[in-house]
């Protein structure tokens, strides 16, 4: 952990799996993020209206309504009961993320993610210090604050400042000065707080975190016995505390990463030269001995959300 | 995680401190956000909401800023407000009458598109819309008011002869011409903005204002006798005394015209007062 004798992060994986293999999920994620942007843009750009609207609410192929459940809940906190279409849209989105992992939104859809990832990349390049690291729970306080502010002002309060919808709506409908919010997030992550926005502050992330607390799709450190302590997964994970209980667990501890904080970005899978990690479902009970134990005790079915 | 265990009291102390810090930070953030949200609620007078929009306080709780109404408006009337460019709350739909007015579509696609009901689905007849109310704000520059026959605002009105009429008045300047004064009738005006858009002056003399600016309000307790009389067919109170009307004439303040009545009592100094 201290002596920097090892290769730079990810080099080992590139050697064993090739560049593509060591960036598979990263590439897929970038493609997904771009696709989610483009699908909203081909309408205004080319007049091809597969999807209308934006991330707060949309209509796909003129039949499928989707609504951001957090935005709608703020409206309800502000004492407005929406029409059926919006409720149905929020239900579809809510159930989907509850199944595939709430923070899949963060790593595969949210347009701010490339921004904060970029800030983190530069942060590392410049060898900047960690900076201010508020508790991870801060985002839940933020989420509570957002609902309180909505109730208090009778408005959908977070939408006045939400950099996510500002950016996405801005790109699709015209951005005005909303890019200043995006720059602010970038600078915050670069100079003030490493992984600060998505890891500690963003109430949207916190909401989807809670939403996906019991999700089916999970990453597992099933081959944890093979871990050679290169620490690359910790280096790339935006929520590195989620890895420890799974990777360092002993035979009876589940190898599943069960924390809702995990964004299912799959970067740990990419970067591990030993192929310790995989995507799986939360009821996967394959035996997974810890390091140094070769007796394969089946792990008990997991139910608790690891902190 | 692997750090040596600290004494329990220290842990609790730290926990309380951290919690207090997070709570305080979020309280500050929340206050700022609330203040900002409060400020941002003010809607500039030129920004008109789409047909069927709920009253502004409810609208900001209802509209999720998805822009589906914007997409389904065939005339590109509606736009979503951009931060720092348009005055309306960021991302909410509005239109500016002088740019592109609402064409008052019969099927009201914008309302149909709205998933939340921020545009009230109860609005099925576009003539019932109340996006604002046109007001002839400048009676000194309006060409009709000057005695010319422009009539454009009247001609373009989709609710012509109901929402806007031309009232014939005497032209006191020339002494022998008429003035055809455009007069808006709030009950029928939808606030579509066609008149404002079409006003031929470089700056429109007729403008659509939000209802809150365009209209006064009669006190709750006011009863318009003539309306009640019409409704009732007779005075509401039996044996109501019809007091003499104050007509100009001798015995009143106005001595010029005939037909006045004698004052009920004389002033003690013998004069008639002034
Ligand atoms: S934490 Fe917030 S900003 Fe970051 S990726 Fe998730 S939703 Fe987007
Ligand atoms: S009624 Fe028609 S023109 Fe007017 S805002 Fe709606 S869609 Fe646009
Ligand atoms: S469709 Fe409704 S919710 Fe969406 S922007 Fe228009 S008014 Fe707001
Ligand atoms: S805004 Fe003007 S054009 Fe539209 S209904 Fe009112 S008077 Fe007629």
- The poorly predicted ranges of chain A are 296-307
Number of strands of chain B: 7
- Taking the alpha carbons of the first and last residues of chain B, their distance comes to 97 Å
Q: Give the overall shape of chain B.
A: extended
Specify the CATH class of one domain in chain B: Alpha Beta
Number of helices of chain B: 8
Average pLDDT over all residues of chain A = 85
Radius of gyration of chain A: 20 Å
- Here the CATH topology of one domain in chain B equals Alpha-Beta Plaits
Number of strands of chain A: 5
Number of domains of chain A: 2
Q: Strand share of the residues of chain A?
A: 5-15%
- Tell me the structural class of chain A: mainly alpha
- The sequence of SSEs of chain B as H and E is HEHHEEHEHEEHEHH
N→C terminal distance of chain A: 22 Å
Describe the biggest sheet of chain B? 3 strands, antiparallel
Please give the order of strands in the largest beta sheet of chain A: 1-2-3
Mean of the pLDDT scores of chain B? Answer: 84
Quick synopsis:
The complex is a heterodimer of chains A (307) and B (274). With 307 residues, chain A is mainly α.
């Amino acid at each position: 952990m201290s002596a920097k004798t090892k290769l730079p992060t990810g080099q080992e994986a590139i050697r064993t799996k090739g560049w593509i293999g060591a960036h598979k999920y990263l590439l897929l994620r970038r493609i997904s993020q771009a696709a989610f942007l483009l699908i909203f843009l081909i309408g205004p750009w080319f007049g091809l209206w597969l999807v209308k609207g934006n991330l707060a609410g949309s209509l796909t192929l003129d039949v499928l309504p989707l609504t951001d459940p957090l935005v709608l809940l703020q409206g309800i906190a502000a004492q407005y009961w929406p029409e059926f279409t919006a409720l149905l849209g929020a239900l579809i989105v809510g159930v989907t993320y509850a199944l595939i992992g709430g923070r899949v939104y963060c790593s595969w859809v949210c347009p701010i993610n490339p921004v904060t990832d970029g800030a983190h990349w530069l942060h590392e390049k410049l060898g900047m210090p960690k900076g201010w690291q508020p508790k991870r729970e801060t985002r839940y306080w933020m989420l509570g604050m957002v609902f309180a502010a909505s109730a208090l002002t009778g408005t959908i309060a977070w939408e006045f400042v939400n950099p996510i919808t500002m950016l996405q709506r801005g790109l699709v409908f015209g951005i005005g000065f909303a890019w200043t919010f995006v720059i602010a997030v970038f600078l915050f992550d670069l100079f003030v707080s490493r992984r600060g926005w998505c890891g500690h502050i963003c109430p949207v992330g916190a909401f989807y975190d809670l939403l996906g607390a019991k999700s089916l799709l999970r990453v597992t450190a099933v081959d944890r016995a093979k871990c050679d302590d290169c620490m690359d997964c910790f280096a790339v994970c935006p929520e590195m505390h989620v890895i420890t209980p799974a990777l360092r667990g002993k035979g009876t501890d589940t190898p599943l990463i069960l924390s809702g904080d995990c964004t299912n970005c799959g970067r740990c899978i990419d970067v591990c030269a030993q192929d310790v990690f995989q995507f799986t479902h939360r009821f996967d009970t394959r035996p997974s001995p810890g390091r140094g134990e070769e007796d394969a005790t089946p792990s008990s079915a997991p139910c608790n959300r690891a902190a | 995680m692997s750090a040596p265990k600290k004494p329990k009291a220290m842990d609790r102390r730290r926990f309380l401190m951290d919690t207090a810090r997070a709570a305080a930070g979020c309280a500050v953030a929340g206050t700022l956000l609330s203040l900002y949200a409060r400020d941002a609620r003010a809607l500039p007078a030129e920004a008109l909401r789409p047909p069927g929009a709920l009253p502004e306080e409810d609208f900001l709780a209802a509209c999720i800023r998805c822009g589906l109404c914007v997409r389904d408006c065939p005339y590109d009337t509606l736009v979503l407000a951009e931060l720092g460019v348009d005055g309306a709350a960021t991302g909410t739909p509005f239109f500016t009458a002088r740019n592109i007015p609402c064409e008052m579509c019969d099927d009201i696609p914008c309302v149909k598109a709205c998933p939340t009901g921020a545009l009230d689905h109860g609005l099925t007849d576009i003539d019932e819309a109340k996006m604002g109310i046109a007001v002839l704000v400048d009676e000194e520059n309006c060409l009709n008011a000057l005695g010319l026959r422009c009539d454009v605002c009247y001609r373009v009105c989709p609710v012509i002869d109901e929402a806007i009429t031309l009232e014939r008045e005497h032209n006191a300047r020339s002494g022998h011409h008429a003035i055809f004064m455009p007069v808006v009738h709030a009950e029928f005006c939808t606030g579509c903005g066609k008149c404002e858009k079409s006003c031929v002056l470089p700056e429109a003399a007729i403008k659509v204002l939000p209802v809150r600016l365009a209209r006064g309000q009669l006190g709750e307790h006011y009863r318009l006798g003539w309306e009640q009389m019409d409704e009732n067919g007779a005075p509401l109170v039996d044996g109501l005394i019809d007091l003499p009307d104050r007509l100009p004439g001798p015995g009143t303040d106005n001595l010029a015209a005939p037909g006045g009545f004698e004052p009920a009592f004389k002033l003690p100094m013998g004069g008639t007062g002034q």
